[in-house]
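hey
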């Protein structure tokens, strides 16, 4: 469905320090990192798309969007917990601790946080664990 998702940041080096351990906890592989541009991209092992991209906007300055969120799929609830705790350890802000959210569906287990630029992120597991 998606080719890529791009998240804008104000300070690429600071954002990269945040996202490297978060992407590692998600078990996503770095496809490239070009600090001179600046941008970086991650993908699942063995596939070219979709890509998760991080970088400075081509035009203007970055501003986090109200009502915008990027959600990552986790195969287990343990991964949701690990990613959430990794994000907070890197300075991310809690927007909803890991837990079941039955108002979405009976097995929805998710966690919400903001990165250092205010971008809202989610990690969700839909498995019946």
């Amino acid at each position: 469905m998606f080719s890529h998702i791009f998240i804008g940041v104000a300070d690429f080096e600071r954002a990269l320090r945040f996202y490297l351990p978060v992407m590692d906890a998600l078990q996503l592989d770095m496809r490239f990192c070009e600090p001179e541009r600046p941008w970086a991209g991650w993908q699942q092992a063995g596939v070219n798309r979709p890509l998760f991209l991080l970088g400075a906007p081509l035009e203007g300055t970055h501003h986090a969007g109200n009502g915008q969120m990027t959600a990552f799929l986790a195969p287990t609830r343990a991964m949701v917990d690990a990613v959430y705790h990794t994000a907070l350890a890197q300075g991310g802000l809690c927007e909803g601790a890991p837990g079941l959210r039955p108002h979405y569906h009976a097995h929805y287990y998710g966690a919400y946080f903001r990165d250092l630029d205010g971008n809202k992120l989610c990690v969700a597991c839909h498995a019946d664990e």
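The longest strand covers residues 93-100. The mean pLDDT is 95.
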